[in-house]
Structure formats: C-alpha cells, structure tokens
Design a protein that fits this description.
It is a single chain. It is elongated, with a radius of gyration of 22 Å. A hairpin with an 8-residue loop joins strand 1 and strand 2 (18-20). It contains 9 helices and 17 strands. The chain is of the alpha+beta class and 311 residues long. It has 2 domains: 2-142, PK beta-barrel domain-like (M1 Pyruvate Kinase, Domain 3, Beta Barrel), CATH 2.40.33.20; 151-301, 3-Layer(aba) Sandwich (Molybdenum Cofactor Biosythetic Enzyme, Chain A).
Length: 311
C-alpha cells in the first residue's frame, strides 16, 4: 500500500510539470489538463518518492515535477513491478504499461546535474477507470491478473515500406492472426532494414513493455540488408531453434525455396521473439502452423504452468 505525495501537470509539452492539489483522471485519456494525456499507452507517468529523495541526497535541488512525472507515490519500487500491475486511487484505476523510456532530448535536470532518474526509474500507465485524486490518497497495488491474455506486437522490416513506397500487408496480417488466436496486440511497427533500429525496438518491447510475443516479418533472406536474424540473436538471452526449424520444415512442404530462410527465434527475459519471412503467404502459413503450440511455451516462460510433460 502506498500514498499519493504529489500530482504534477503541464499544459504544454516540453515545459516542466507543476504540482497541483487535486486532479481528475479520465478513462482512456489520462489527467485532464495535462499535455501528455491522450489515446496512447503512456497516459500517466509515475515515480517513487524514495527515488527522488535519493536523487536529492546526491546534492541535487529538484522540485516535484522536474523529471516530467505526473504522480509521485510513496511506498513502491515501480521498476521492479511487472507491466500489467494495477493501482487503485479512490475510484480511479490505472494499469502499468511501460517501465522507463528512452530520453531523446535531455531535460533541464540532466543538463544541470548530468543525470535524470525518469528514464530508468519512472513508469507509465493507462487509465482504466476515471475519478478525482487528491494529495494523501491511499494507493493500492493490484498484481497482474494471472488469466489475462498474452500480449503481442508485430514489426515489419522493410526499407521501402518505411518510406511509404510499398504497402505493408504482412504485418497487419500477422496482427489479425494473433488477434484471432486471442492475443492482445499492444504495438505494431514498420521500420527500415536497419540493424541498430531492429535491436533498439526489440529491446524496448521486451524490457520496457514486457510484451509476451514479438513477431517480426521481413529481412530473413540473402540480401545484404536482410539483418533481422542477426539483430534478433544479438538481443536474445536464449535461442529457440526448434520454432524456426519447425517453420522451415513445414514451409518446405509448400515450396523448396523455404530452405533459403535464415529466420531465427529466441527469448529475451520473458519475451519470445519469432522471425517470419516477409511475404503475406509465408506469414499466414507459418503462424497457422506454430500458434497452437506457442500458448504452452509462453505459459512455461511466464510461470503460468510448470509441467511440459504429457500424461
């Protein structure tokens, strides 16, 4: 159980947030009057009071809101809570959607003291139920529901697609098949065939958003720009070659050219990453073949079941 210590908002992006006595949380939006509210997954930012106090102990004179945080709460180490954790504040209900963030343009605090704690200690949430919140309100932690759907994201790697020169049909098809299989699609991306970009997005989805399953399409062939397998292998803690081998073996029954696929699959943290070829036909055939078996693997990976043996 925690306590709401401060509420901070800013009417314009790029300006420091200022403390207020109370605020209204609006479902699927965020804090009314705050520039960062909207229809996205980072509606409200949260930061632990203890992290701010530790930062101040290093000699930095920072006010509430200086890191861009909306809610300062005492009693939680947010970074060590899983995505999906919920927080009840009065009638309002928030669900944590992301841990930390990449800082593209360093804030005034960073330029002043050379550090900012928000990118590594702050978390973000969406508002599930609205209500008025006030300073001193009790904050109740609700662990993630164990029977909630697995989350998924898809990424298409295509230089032409990212430039708008080619319509991406593979990624949306992957998303459609995942939704039909019961997955909660939380992100969809179209990026160039760039090694570092692929690395960055896979790491963000696995570490910050803690997506259960990431499906990639494209970049698995022999072309010089086909670097998806290498980027995938570089970010994984453990590889799962059986999945990629099974897809190739099944695809070989459709076309002998399936032997040319270099697709890989592996695990980073609690996230399973699977490379698929770039054609819609290959995406459909591959997913229809492997999806029935993935559920059990994800349950094992995420601790929802412990026994792989069949009776």
């Amino acid at each position: 159980m925690g306590k709401l210590i401060a509420i901070c908002i800013s009417e314009k992006k790029g300006t420091q947030k200022k403390p207020v006595e109370s605020a209204v949380l609006k479902a699927d939006h965020g804090i009314e009057g705050d520039a960062h509210a909207g229809n996205w997954h980072r509606q409200v930012s949260l930061l632990g009071l203890e992290k701010i106090e530790n930062f101040r102990a290093r000699g930095a004179d920072v006010e509430f809101g200086a890191f861009g945080e909306n809610l300062i709460i005492e009693g939680f180490d947010f970074r060590n809570l899983p995505v999906g954790t919920r927080f009840k504040i009065g009638d309002a209900l928030l669900e944590m959607t992301q841990i930390g963030k990449e800082c593209h343009t360093h804030c005034a605090i960073y330029h002043l003291v050379g550090d900012c704690i928000m990118p590594r200690e702050g978390v973000f949430a969406k508002v599930l139920a609205g209500g008025e919140i006030r300073l001193g309100d009790e904050v109740i932690e609700i662990p993630p529901q164990t029977d909630r759907p697995f989350t998924a994201a898809w990424i298409t790697m295509s230089d032409k697609g990212a430039k708008g020169q080619r319509e991406d049909k593979s990624g949306p098809l992957a998303g459609q098949l995942l939704m039909q299989a019961g997955y909660d699609i939380i992100e969809q991306l179209l990026i160039p065939d760039d090694y570092e970009t692929i690395q960055k997005e896979l790491i963000r989805l696995a570490d910050q958003r803690q997506v259960n399953l990431v499906i990639t399409t494209g970049g698995t062939g022999f072309a010089e720009r086909d670097v998806t397998p290498e980027a995938t292998e570089s970010v994984c803690d453990r590889m799962t070659p059986g999945i990629s081998e099974a897809i190739r073996a099944y695809s070989m029954t459709k076309t002998p050219r399936a032997m040319l696929s270099r697709a890989a699959s592996g695990i980073r943290g609690k996230t399973l990453i699977i490379n698929l070829p770039g054609s819609p036909k290959a995406v459909q055939e591959s997913l229809e073949y492997v999806l029935p078996s993935l559920q059990h693997g994800l349950e094992i990976l995420n601790g929802r079941t412990a026994d792989c043996a069949r009776k």
